[in-house]
Amino acid sequence: MQENAQSQKQNYDVIIPTYKPDEKCKRLLDALEQQEVPPRKIILINTEEALFPKSLLEGRNPELYLVKHIKKEEFDHAYARNLGVSFSDAPFFLCMTEDAVPKDSSCTKELLEAFSWEERIGAVYARQLTDEKSSFDEVLSRSFNYGTEPKICGIEQLAKLGIKCFFQSNVCCMYKKDLFERLGGFSEPSIFNEDMIYAARMQEAGGKTAYCPKAEVWHSHHFSAMDQFHRNFDLGVSHRDYREIFSKIPAEKEGMKYLKKSIGKLWKEKKALWILPFFYKTAFRFLGYQLGKRYHKLPKSWVYAFTVNPQYFRKKFSKEREEQ
């Protein structure tokens, strides 16, 4: 009876896009295998087979893993994840990135249990934690976006919350598969932000997004100002390409909230010397975002220089030429 009850709980698969997976990805797989509620299957959608280390899956249960390789020119944030979901037969699936690691063994259990909070919840995302290697601006960003209180967001809160209403992150986010399939999955093509685009469509269809702070993952970077510029350029592109969603809720207002709150936090913590570098990095983020929103007006050479995902634009520009 106990074994049967445990198998009933194993009702989700994990989808992880990978590219040159490293030691952090190994730690992620270890953590997933050690969850109180482990997955049925871990599906890796890997970009470029030649760059996939065989050592990643050595000593692991081959029945737990499925690896599908795609070419770099095929990669798209939505396509890769939709492809992964197509190989899943579980009622829930968990999207993760290869550089996020669950803090403890209760992460997936907490995500699954959050669906019981309300019937209309279609996606639940985890809290992201920084570590000692994180840059100070990333610590501020995580503090702003990932609080300690759980919350549920539906379309009725859009006027009050603005763009934050659609916030969720595929760094670690669990989805109801039946609703996902009814809505046609992640919108393709998506250069970035496929998770929030889906959240907007899901909420407009009557679903809700939940934030579960008890589910925690380590997820840290040390982005330079130029790294932030490139990432926010692609963010701006996604807002331009899906302007039917994002033109109604400009992100700049939320950006100003982040700026004011972060400066106040630095001042309160007596870290005033960090305010100037924070402004500097924030300026690069803002510039990248604004240029991304206007990419259609820029020379193509600039677009290729600014983006993190040149393959997205090669396909896009090629399609535009064919339609002319």
Structure description:
The chain has 324 residues and is an alpha/beta fold. It contains 14 helices and nine strands. Strands 1, 2, 3, 4, 5, 6, 7, 8 and 9 form a nine-stranded mixed β-sheet that branches. α9 runs parallel beside α12 (275-293) and α11 (252-268) packs antiparallel against α12 (275-293).
The succession of helices and strands, N to C, reads: HEHEEHEEHEHEHEHHEHHHHHH
Mean pLDDT: 91
The SS-based structural class is: alpha/beta
Q: Cα-atom Rg, whole angstroms?
A: 20 Å
Assembly context of the chains = single chain
Helix content: 40-55%
Number of helices: 14
Strand portion, in percent? 15-25%
Any chance you could write out the topology, listing elements then pairs?
Layout: H1 2-9, E1 12-18, H2 23-33, E2 41-47, E3 65-70, H3 77-86, E4 92-96, E5 101-102, H4 107-114, E6 121-129, H5 136-145, E7 151-153, H6 158-161, E8 172-176, H7 177-182, H8 194-204, E9 208-218, H9 225-241, H10 243-246, H11 252-268, H12 275-293, H13 300-306, H14 310-323
Parallel strand pairs: 1-2, 1-4, 2-3, 6-9
Antiparallel strand pairs: 4-8, 5-9, 6-8, 7-9
Helix pairs in contact: 9-12, 11-12
